[in-house]
Design brief:
With 251 residues, the protein is of the alpha+beta class. The protein has two domains: 30 residues; 209 residues, no CATH class. It is built from seven helices and nine strands. A five-stranded antiparallel sheet has the order 4-3-2-1-9, covered by helices on one side. A four-stranded antiparallel sheet has the order 5-6-7-8, covered by helices on one side. A hairpin with a 3-residue loop joins strand 1 and strand 2. The protein is globular, with a radius of gyration of 18 Å. About 33% of the residues have low confidence.
Amino acid sequence: MDTRTVSLALIAAFLGATLLGAGIWIGQSLTRSTTASSWQYGDMMGATAGGMMGGGMMTSPGSSNAEPLSTEDAAQAVDKYLQSLGLTDLEVGEVMIFDNHAYAQVVDGAKNGAFEVLVDPVTRSVGLEYGPAMMWNIEYGMMGGRGAMMGFGMMGTSMMGGAGSMMAQEFIGSSGEAISADQAIEIAQDYLDRYLPALTADEHADAFPGYFTIHTLQEGENVGMLSVNAFNGDVWYHTWHGSLIEEGIHD
């Protein structure tokens, strides 16, 4: 291999490492930490994230004027998506229809949370949800062992050697134990009291690998959701959904 080839290879490796580090930094900067003295916040990646999702390009939040999907149509789209990935051990759980898109939880046979997806109302393409599902899910997200299935081949075990699991072990080892569902609800309520006092946290937390997702209520009615990192208590409010239209559980 000549000097020029070696130089090009080194430059490519440097750029790849730089982009990887930048992606992780951006993801971390998009949360508001409950463990830090000052809470940092940044809005979601919007349309940029759409191109990274396994189901193809999705409409950016708020940009679609399409007729909202029904819960059944959304569930069928997610079922087809799971089949295309060979995830036959998983199924559709809760489905929520927002005016921007449909949202669905993917669960295993015991109804344990696996990951969260969005369904584009125009194309019905399905992909991993923005935010926590991408950045915090230690099994199916960008740093997870099964992330390659979700369209994150460069970020999954093939390149990172199961980095998500190692990160989880590091957090658990330093803190003694992961945050419980009850603690996540308390953290969520503290966040809402500080920043969105008109809202309250639901009494139930849906557990996913590495984080919890909790519905937010206004006058007892579900209006949205937020997620709490199961290892460090960071809070990430789901700002991309829009207004809730309908919700249900897929049978």
